[in-house]
Specification:
Elements lengths: L24 H35 L7 H17 L4 H11 L4 H30 L10 H67 L3 H53 L5 H32 L9 E10 L5 E10 L5 E12 L2 E15 L3 E11 L5 E12 L4 E9 L5 E8 L4 E5 L17
Antiparallel strand pairs: 1-2, 2-3, 3-4, 4-5, 5-6, 6-7, 7-8, 8-9
Length: about 450
């Protein structure tokens, strides 16, 4: 009998038509797996290259941790570009930008603290030796033991301060190394996201052209899932970096309390009072920095795509006091054109002591994009003293290429006597210099006995 529907051969089964290659899940899974594997291999290679470049920088007299700034600049650019295809990449770029630090400045600061610690320990030893060198027969009065006791207390104060300075230097350097480690991870993650973005873009192109359209959407969805996993991993790594910073802060704060306690136990009666004054003084600078960072974090989030969506690109707030109780207060703003093709900065700072103006400075900078992915720019700064006399006149020029994490800048200054000084900074993934100078280093003057006085 025929088929009730009227189709001939109703009792004969017909095998379904084979699915096309674009409909088969196996090739789709294979394409995503290939992109994932390729991204991991390329990311690991990029991280290894970043580490190798840092070793080269160190071998050539530069800073190993200083290469973190170059690696983070390149990683942020790559992650932002990948985010144009895979949106989780935009948040990865935002986390990278928030986790970028001035590792070269941290290293210099750590070295300064360590040098101070060595000098304090040396002073403690010399003071103790000076007392021991006083012959017993030269001082036989009863007040000698009391004097030696006071000197021993003072030596303990110097030693405890030296120990604290050592801890501070080590903590700051620990944060610098944490930032460097994060930068190597960031470079690897950025390259991985770039590989995923290539596969996702191909899938979108297939869907748009209709060639393999059925298979393109699932491949893109799988790449999105992997990008989301990459974002979660980056968030965890960023949390670990933040924890390293918190540990460093705890060492600074806790160490200060322990040192003040040790100082008071060794005769410094007002150590805790001095610490309280330091906290109050430092709170003004801390408040300015926290406000600045909060504002800049918001701007970084708004502009996380890499294209400046908001004309205000950054703010700078300062409130610092130097050793002679002079406050340096002021700030600046950074603005951009739509798309970030050009950028400008304006800043003003005033030096104030006991309510009186001790000096002012005004600074202006600008930079703009040129073919080849480079940004070039320059600017100038004028400084006045407390009598409103023009003191220093500075200019600066520079060029950078964020995509390859490289940049250089030069600054020249004419002082009030028109004597010239300069400094330059260079930062690349394999070479860096901080506060270098083309000036011939001035030799130390000979001792008085070698001078014809």
């Amino acid at each position: 009998m025929g088929d009730p529907s009227g189709r001939p051969g109703g009792n004969q089964s017909q095998s379904p038509a084979p699915r096309s290659q674009s409909q088969s899940p196996a090739p789709r899974a294979q394409a995503t797996s290939n992109a994932h594997s390729k991204g991991i291999k390329q990311g690991a290679g990029a991280g290894a290259l970043g580490l190798g470049g840092a070793l080269i920088a160190g071998a050539t007299g530069g800073s190993i941790v200083g290469t973190a700034e170059s690696l983070m600049a390149a990683a942020t650019e790559m992650a932002g570009a990948a985010g144009l295809v895979l949106p989780p990449g935009l948040m990865v770029a935002f986390l990278f930008k928030e986790s970028t630090g001035k590792t070269t400045k941290l290293e210099v600061s750590a070295r300064t603290w360590t040098d101070a610690a060595q000098q304090l320990h040396q002073a403690a030893q010399e003071i103790a030796q000076l007392v021991q060198d006083i012959p017993g027969e030269a001082w036989t009065m009863d007040d000698r033991p009391l004097y030696e006791s006071h000197v021993a207390d003072y030596r303990q104060q110097l030693d405890s301060l030296g120990t604290y300075c050592t801890a501070v230097g080590s903590s700051i350097m620990g944060v610098a190394w944490a930032l460097f480690t994060y930068s190597v991870f960031a470079m690897g993650m950025a390259v991985y996201l770039s590989a995923l973005a290539v596969a996702a873009a191909a899938a979108l192109a297939a869907s748009a052209t209709g060639i393999g359209a059925v298979g393109g959407a699932p491949v893109y969805a799988q790449c999105m899932g992997l990008a989301g996993t990459a974002l979660a991993i980056t968030g965890g790594a960023t949390g670990i970096l933040a924890a390293a910073g918190m540990i460093g802060a705890a060492v600074l704060g806790g160490g200060a309390l322990l040192t003040a306690n040790s100082q008071e136990n060794n005769g410094a009666e007002n150590a805790f009072g001095a610490l309280q004054k330091a906290v109050v003084t430092g709170s003004a600078g801390a408040a300015a920095n926290l406000t600045q960072n909060a504002a800049n974090s918001g701007l970084n989030f708004v502009n996380r795509s890499g294209s400046q969506m908001f004309p205000l690109a950054g703010v700078d707030l300062d409130a610092d006091r130097d050793i002679d109780k002079t406050w340096n207060v002021g700030g600046g703003v950074k603005g951009t054109t739509p798309g970030g093709a050009a950028e400008g900065e304006l800043g003003y700072h005033a030096k104030i002591k006991d309510g009186n103006l001790q000096g002012q400075e005004v600074e202006a900078k600008g930079k703009f994009a040129v073919p080849g992915g480079f940004n070039v720019g320059g600017g100038g700064k004028l400084e006045w003293d407390e009598n409103e006399n023009l003191k220093n006149k500075s200019f600066n020029v520079g060029a950078e290429n964020p995509a390859i994490g490289s940049g250089a800048e030069y600054e020249g200054t004419f002082d009030q006597k028109n004597d010239y000084s300069d400094k330059y900074n260079v930062n690349t993934p394999i070479f860096n210099r901080t506060d270098g100078s083309f000036e011939k280093k001035k030799e130390d003057p000979p001792p008085p006995w070698d001078q014809d006085l």
